[in-house]
Amino acid sequence: MRADVFQHVRNCYLCQRGKPAPNTRVGLHAAEPSAKPLEKLFVDFVGQLTRTKRGNSSILVVLDSFLNLSHSFLLGAWHVLL
Question: Of 27, 7, 3, 23, whose CA–CA distance to 15 is shortest?
Answer without folding.
Answer: 7
